[in-house]
């Protein structure tokens, strides 16, 4: 079978991080023009926001015959063998869980935008993995169909 790929743009992440980064750059510029040394702090903050932006601007889930994998932004991600997965189902995250990489009470959440996700349960672990997506039903059906 072919590899299926699902990419979600991190609308919330970009809409939040990009303006904040631009504000920090503007503040650094204004502060530097006034001859104050605070400009470096604003530039460091802008750089940290830039790093967050390139890691959370999108999330891509790939499903092939042997693995489910995901990649956030420019490369942060994980891969799981289908033979280790017990089930996959669509879920809705609470606002409390939010966006980004989070430790949940029963596992991990990886999300760039929105509240929808898939939840992977494993055969030999009690923890779960939630991966944010804008197509949770389609992806969970695909994964369920490939589980042996």
**CATH architecture call:** Roll
Strand content: 35-45%
Name the CATH superfamily classification.
Pleckstrin-homology domain (PH domain)/Phosphotyrosine-binding domain (PTB)
Structural class: alpha+beta
Quickly count the domains: 1
Shape: elongated
Describe the structure.
The chain is α+β, with helices and mostly antiparallel strands and 148 residues long. The protein has one domain: Roll (PH-domain like). Helix content is 35%, strand content 36%. It contains three helices and nine strands. The chain has helices at 11-33, 39-56, 136-146, and strands at residues 4-9, 58-63, 67-72, 76-81, 85-92, 100-104, 107-111, 116-122, 128-132. Helix 1 (11-33) packs antiparallel against helix 2. The longest helix is centred in the first third of the chain and has 23 residues, at 11-33.
Provide the fold topology.
Blueprint: E1 4-9, H1 11-33, H2 39-56, E2 58-63, E3 67-72, E4 76-81, E5 85-92, E6 100-104, E7 107-111, E8 116-122, E9 128-132, H3 136-146
Parallel strand pairs: 7-9
Antiparallel strand pairs: 1-2, 2-3, 3-4, 5-8, 6-7, 8-9
């Amino acid at each position: 079978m072919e590899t299926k790929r699902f990419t979600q743009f991190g609308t919330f992440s970009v809409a939040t991080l990009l303006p904040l980064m631009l504000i920090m750059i503007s503040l650094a510029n204004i502060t530097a023009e006034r001859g104050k040394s605070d400009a470096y702090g604003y530039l460091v903050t802008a750089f940290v926001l830039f790093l967050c932006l390139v890691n959370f601007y999108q999330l891509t889930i790939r499903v092939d015959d042997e693995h489910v994998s995901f990649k956030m932004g420019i490369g942060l991600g994980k891969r799981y063998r289908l033979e280790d997965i017990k089930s996959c189902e669509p879920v809705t995250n609470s606002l409390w869980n939010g966006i980004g990489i989070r430790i949940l009470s029963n596992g991990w959440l990886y999300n760039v935008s929105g509240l929808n996700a898939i939840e992977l349960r494993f055969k030999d672990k009690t923890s779960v993995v939630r991966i944010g997506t804008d197509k949770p039903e389609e992806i969970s059906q695909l994964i369920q169909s490939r589980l042996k």
